[in-house]
């Protein structure tokens, strides 16, 4: 069914060679093109390992990882990534930080030289979507934590990746800023034609943003439950007061509590 951008089948991933830590085992995950998927689970269940598998930073010992129809055997260039702590270079302006991935990826480097104005316009368009219009010439240290995370999202999207992987990107922010950024990422997803996989501990975040939520078991991680989240879009923050929303969050909380007990 559907057209899968990410398909993980029967994957085992062990750290430190034979006899090492089995991080995930029998992992199966399929994410459709254009979908917003969230992955939740107990601490240490292998969520970050999953990110590394999809981006090709780890190659599994068993099973297969296919992204955009290609078996993953090395780092994947159609992926954008954003992590909890944005690492902006302090000596570069925000705009130049956003353009950085283009200087690193071979394919874009030549294009960047020839079409700089186009890419600058694209960066400015992204800055506008995330609410940072006019901040491109500021240095990262002149921005608040939430603003840096907004810029970080622009940087992850500048090369127009088909897939955006987000590893707890809002974890370090206060509750209000986090909610603001949920709306930013919701709008980016709606406007950019990008598939998103979000790894998070925050169940409200998962249910508010995602079309599909995967619940992982304790280590070795595998998917215990998969939920389709059907709340219509665009979703407003008020949705979180809806009894159906709370019910879904509680259902997930119960499943994770059970998964922890098995550990
Ligand atoms: N380089 C490594 N060497 C050995 N074990 C590792 C390594 N990286 C991760 N692990 C182990 O593999 C398991 C999964 O790690 P991973 O970082 O993927 O979990 P996680 O779900 O992201 O954790 P958390 O929820 O705490 O962020 C953990 O139990 C961890 O101890």
Please give a handful of descriptors for the protein shown.
Rossmann fold; nucleotide-binding; 6-stranded mixed β-sheet; 10 strands; binds adenosine-5'-triphosphate; 263 residues; globular; 8 helices; single chain; 2 domains; 4-stranded antiparallel β-sheet; P-loop_NTPase
Provide the fold topology:
Blueprint: E1 4-15, E2 21-32, E3 36-40, H1 47-55, E4 62-67, E5 70-71, E6 79-82, H2 94-104, H3 106-114, H4 116-129, H5 145-157, E7 163-167, H6 175-192, E8 195-199, H7 203-209, E9 212-216, E10 223-228, H8 243-262
Parallel strand pairs: 3-8, 3-9, 6-7, 7-8
Antiparallel strand pairs: 1-2, 1-4, 4-5, 9-10
Helix pairs in contact: 2-3, 2-5, 5-6, 7-8
The chain binds adenosine-5'-triphosphate.
Strand order of the largest sheet: 6-7-8-3-9-10
Outline type: globular
CATH level-four homologous superfamily name of the largest domain: P-loop containing nucleotide triphosphate hydrolases
Please outline the major beta sheet.
6 strands, mixed
Low-confidence stretches: none
| Portion in helices | 25-40%
In CATH terms, what is the fold-level topology of the largest domain?
Answer: Rossmann fold
Mean pLDDT over the residues: 91
Number of helices: 8
Distance between the termini: 33 Å
User: Helix-strand pattern, N to C?
Assistant: EEEHEEEHHHHEHEHEEH
